[in-house]
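User: Teach me something about this protein's shape.
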Amino acid sequence: VYGSRSYVQQHGAPQRIEDVGRHAIVGFDGILINHRAAKWLAAIAPGANIAARNNSVLGVLHAVKSGIGIAPLPTTIADMDDDLVRILPPVPELTRGWYLLTHPELRQTPRIRAFFDFVVEKLDMVRPILMA
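Assistant: First, the predicted structure itself:
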Protein backbone atom coordinates (compact mmCIF):
# COMPACT_ATOMS: atom_id res chain seq x y z
CA VAL A 1 0.00 0.00 0.00
CA TYR A 2 1.41 3.36 -1.05
CA GLY A 3 0.79 7.04 -0.54
CA SER A 4 2.47 10.17 -1.78
CA ARG A 5 4.99 11.88 0.45
CA SER A 6 2.66 14.87 0.72
CA TYR A 7 -0.31 12.66 1.71
CA VAL A 8 1.71 10.92 4.43
CA GLN A 9 3.04 14.24 5.77
CA GLN A 10 -0.47 15.70 5.92
CA HIS A 11 -2.52 12.66 7.03
CA GLY A 12 -0.02 10.19 8.43
CA ALA A 13 0.16 6.57 7.36
CA PRO A 14 -1.86 3.56 8.46
CA GLN A 15 0.17 1.40 10.81
CA ARG A 16 -1.85 -1.75 10.19
CA ILE A 17 -4.08 -3.09 7.44
CA GLU A 18 -7.06 -2.45 9.71
CA ASP A 19 -6.23 1.28 9.61
CA VAL A 20 -6.47 1.59 5.81
CA GLY A 21 -10.20 2.32 5.96
CA ARG A 22 -9.55 5.45 8.03
CA HIS A 23 -7.73 7.02 5.09
CA ALA A 24 -8.82 8.39 1.74
CA ILE A 25 -8.63 5.57 -0.79
CA VAL A 26 -7.90 5.60 -4.49
CA GLY A 27 -10.09 2.79 -5.70
CA PHE A 28 -10.55 0.74 -8.82
CA ASP A 29 -13.28 1.02 -11.43
CA GLY A 30 -14.24 -0.33 -14.84
CA ILE A 31 -12.26 -3.38 -15.90
CA LEU A 32 -10.36 -3.38 -12.59
CA ILE A 33 -13.45 -3.60 -10.37
CA ASN A 34 -13.01 -7.38 -10.09
CA HIS A 35 -9.22 -7.26 -9.70
CA ARG A 36 -8.03 -8.90 -6.51
CA ALA A 37 -6.67 -5.57 -5.21
CA ALA A 38 -10.12 -4.01 -5.62
CA LYS A 39 -11.74 -6.94 -3.83
CA TRP A 40 -9.12 -6.78 -1.08
CA LEU A 41 -9.78 -3.06 -0.54
CA ALA A 42 -13.54 -3.64 -0.41
CA ALA A 43 -13.03 -6.38 2.19
CA ILE A 44 -10.65 -4.53 4.50
CA ALA A 45 -12.11 -1.03 4.16
CA PRO A 46 -15.81 -1.39 3.30
CA GLY A 47 -16.85 2.07 4.54
CA ALA A 48 -13.75 3.97 3.46
CA ASN A 49 -13.82 7.36 1.81
CA ILE A 50 -13.14 6.68 -1.88
CA ALA A 51 -11.41 9.87 -3.00
CA ALA A 52 -11.10 8.71 -6.62
CA ARG A 53 -11.58 5.64 -8.78
CA ASN A 54 -9.69 4.65 -11.87
CA ASN A 55 -9.89 1.91 -14.48
CA SER A 56 -6.13 1.54 -14.98
CA VAL A 57 -3.23 0.80 -12.67
CA LEU A 58 -1.34 3.80 -14.05
CA GLY A 59 -4.38 5.98 -13.36
CA VAL A 60 -4.44 4.75 -9.76
CA LEU A 61 -0.68 5.38 -9.53
CA HIS A 62 -1.03 8.98 -10.73
CA ALA A 63 -3.99 9.63 -8.44
CA VAL A 64 -1.95 8.38 -5.47
CA LYS A 65 1.01 10.52 -6.59
CA SER A 66 -1.28 13.57 -6.63
CA GLY A 67 -1.82 13.11 -2.89
CA ILE A 68 -5.55 12.46 -2.82
CA GLY A 69 -5.36 9.04 -1.18
CA ILE A 70 -3.63 5.71 -0.71
CA ALA A 71 -3.89 2.47 -2.67
CA PRO A 72 -2.30 -0.93 -3.15
CA LEU A 73 0.06 -0.71 -6.12
CA PRO A 74 2.49 -3.14 -7.77
CA THR A 75 5.83 -2.92 -5.97
CA THR A 76 7.66 -3.15 -9.30
CA ILE A 77 6.18 0.20 -10.31
CA ALA A 78 5.63 2.07 -7.06
CA ASP A 79 9.00 1.34 -5.44
CA MET A 80 10.72 2.99 -8.41
CA ASP A 81 8.86 6.28 -7.89
CA ASP A 82 10.49 8.74 -5.51
CA ASP A 83 7.18 10.56 -4.98
CA LEU A 84 5.61 7.47 -3.40
CA VAL A 85 6.11 5.98 0.04
CA ARG A 86 5.41 2.36 0.86
CA ILE A 87 3.24 2.67 3.93
CA LEU A 88 2.50 -1.01 4.50
CA PRO A 89 4.49 -4.10 3.50
CA PRO A 90 3.37 -6.18 0.51
CA VAL A 91 0.05 -7.87 1.14
CA PRO A 92 0.35 -11.68 0.84
CA GLU A 93 -3.10 -11.95 -0.76
CA LEU A 94 -1.96 -9.64 -3.55
CA THR A 95 1.39 -11.22 -4.39
CA ARG A 96 1.89 -13.48 -7.38
CA GLY A 97 3.89 -16.59 -8.04
CA TRP A 98 5.76 -16.87 -11.30
CA TYR A 99 6.08 -20.20 -13.09
CA LEU A 100 8.13 -21.25 -16.08
CA LEU A 101 6.88 -24.51 -17.53
CA THR A 102 8.02 -26.84 -20.26
CA HIS A 103 7.34 -30.38 -21.29
CA PRO A 104 9.69 -32.74 -19.36
CA GLU A 105 11.10 -34.17 -22.59
CA LEU A 106 12.12 -30.70 -23.79
CA ARG A 107 13.64 -29.44 -20.56
CA GLN A 108 17.22 -30.47 -21.42
CA THR A 109 17.23 -29.52 -25.10
CA PRO A 110 19.89 -26.86 -25.77
CA ARG A 111 17.54 -24.06 -26.82
CA ILE A 112 15.15 -24.60 -23.89
CA ARG A 113 18.03 -24.95 -21.43
CA ALA A 114 19.57 -21.73 -22.80
CA PHE A 115 16.27 -19.91 -22.38
CA PHE A 116 15.83 -21.16 -18.80
CA ASP A 117 19.40 -20.13 -17.96
CA PHE A 118 18.77 -16.68 -19.45
CA VAL A 119 15.56 -16.22 -17.45
CA VAL A 120 17.22 -17.31 -14.20
CA GLU A 121 20.15 -14.95 -14.82
CA LYS A 122 17.86 -11.99 -15.50
CA LEU A 123 15.58 -12.92 -12.61
CA ASP A 124 18.53 -12.70 -10.23
CA MET A 125 19.12 -9.16 -11.49
CA VAL A 126 15.53 -8.00 -10.89
CA ARG A 127 14.79 -10.09 -7.80
CA PRO A 128 15.26 -7.12 -5.41
CA ILE A 129 12.62 -5.19 -7.35
CA LEU A 130 10.18 -8.07 -7.64
CA MET A 131 10.53 -9.15 -4.03
CA ALA A 132 10.62 -5.67 -2.51
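Now, about its shape. The helical segments are 5-11, 36-44, 57-65, 75-78, 110-130. The chain has a mean pLDDT of 89. If you'd like, I can walk through any region in more detail.
User: That's plenty for now, thanks!
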